[in-house]
Every structure is written in structure tokens, then in C-alpha cells.
Amino acid sequence: MDSDLFSRRRAERFAQLLDEANGGRRHHVRSRADGELTALVEVSRRVTAERPTVEVDPEFRTGLRAMLVATAEREGVTAPAKAGTAGSLRGALLPAITGRRARARGAILVGVAAGAVALSGISAASENALPGDALYGMKRSTERAQLALASSDISRGQLFLDFARTRLDEAASVRDDRLGFSAVLDDMDTDTRQGVRLLTTVAAQRSDPTALDAVDTFLAGQRRVVSGLLDRPDHADRDRTRRSLALLDAAGKRADALREAIACGLPAPAASDALGPAPAACPGDR
Asked: What whole-number distance in Å separates Cα of residue 196 and Cα of residue 251?
């Protein structure tokens, strides 16, 4: 999601989705941002429903308050003026649209607070949760919220690769559960593909290999740890692990091919697949 996340239209739609999630009337509208905003609404719902016991750091509480106050001042969300003052007269004369703008600005503050809380003390309670644990769903919802708040495709790509590392840690902790192990590796591979695709696409579009550095760093560490899973005693687990290793090898070859294509000045590839743009070979390599 880009910096338009907290635009007035998105903020109003976010407020509507929060109302609906809390039992309010259903708004018969749809927005292209619904899929992204729903992740934040889901975090809010889980936090309300599960209420994990978390001790919020005093410095975070102070920082959050300062951030909200600053945002309120910047967006013009202030306390109601006292009766009889110029402010109250001005408020009485403002058109109805001002109320909608105030609600939108209020929703902006709700979004800022929800994102900050979800990515701080509350998410800390679930960060070590494993598949099957009560807080695992919150952990995954927090990840979706992080993606929704990411400001660029590079940030989202790096987050997906971080999540792939997290899935790998979870897979290493799954014992005596072949289906669970395979499911975690499925999720890991999905995160790997999405992260690599975003970063290779940015590199191709900009004709700049910098975004590929994150892919190379990820692959170096990920290959080593995934290879360690080949020691598992179950033959099916080893076969499933080899599929993940094959994906990492394919991602490495794609990153290398893109670097070569950029270096020899080829235009952005028209062909694309699950790992992003598929470049042609440089003229001298054909």
C-alpha cells in the first residue's frame, strides 16, 4: 500500500469497515482498498476478542500519545470549542461536509493507533506462536497488517522474505506432524515467491539491481537453514524440503539473470512468471 493509505476516502472506508466489524449497519459500498484495509480490521477484531495480556512499554505509550496528538493537530482534529467562543460560532456555520471530514480524520487517528499497537506490544504476545497455538492467527494477522502499512513494493518484498524466514523457523519446530510441516513449507514458499517477484519486478522496472541485493542475502541464509531440514528422519519430509530448495535455486538463477540483463542494457522483460520478470539472454550469451 502506498502513502495514500490514510487519504480521506480510504479513512472513511476504514471507519465503515470498523463499524461493520463491531455490529454497526452494513454500508452497501465497495472499495478497491477493502482487501488491504480488511487486514487492519481483522487485527482490531482479534485484539478485542482475544485480549492477550501484554505489558505495554511506558516509552511506547508516551511515544504513541505524542504521535497521535501531533497527527490530530496536523489534521485539525481538536477538542470541541467552549460555548460562546468564536470557535463554537464557526462550528455552527460549517457545512455538513465538515462532519464527514472530521470522521475521516478521526479514522486516520484510529488507523495510526491500530497500526502502531498491532505492530508493537500486542503483536509481541504472538510473535513466538507456532501453528496450532491460540495466538498464531493473531501473528499472521499482524503480518498482513504490516504488509498493508508498507510504503513501497521494496518494503513489501522484504517483508515477504522476512515472513518466509519466520515460516522456516516454524517448520524447524514442527515435530511428528507431516501435514503441519508440509503446510508451513507451503506458506514459506508462497512468501518466497511473492517477495522475490516484488523485488525482481522493481529491479527490472528501474533497470537497477539494488533491489536484488535483498534477494541474494535472503537466499544465502535460507538455503543453509532449509538444507538442515534434510536431516529429518521422515522420507516425505525430506522430499518436501527438496522442493523448497529447488524454489530457492530457481530464485537465485532468476536474480542472476536479471543482473546480467540489466548490466547489458536489455529493456524490462515482457514475460513474467511466479518469480517475476523473465529476462532474455544478453546478445553475447545466445
From this structure: 7
Q: DSSP letter at 276?
A: E
What tens digit of pLDDT does each residue of 53-106 get?
Answer: 555 556 655 665 665 566 555 555 444 444 444 444 444 444 544 555 555 555
- The residue among 12, 219, 216, 6 whose CA lies nearest residue 100 is 12
Enumerate the β-bridge partners of residue 277.
Answer: 272
Q: How far is residue 265 from each of residues 197, 204, 209, 260, 281, measured CA to CA in Å?
A: 20, 11, 12, 9, 11
Whole-model pTM: value is: 0.63
Q: How far is CA 238 from CA 82, 228, 243, 245, 251, in A?
A: 71, 10, 9, 10, 20
Q: Which residues contact 195 (CB under 8 A, 6 or more apart)?
A: 156, 157, 158, 159, 160, 161, 163, 164, 215, 218
Residue with cell 544465502: 220
Q: Please report where in the chains the cell 480488511 appears, as a residue.
A: 38
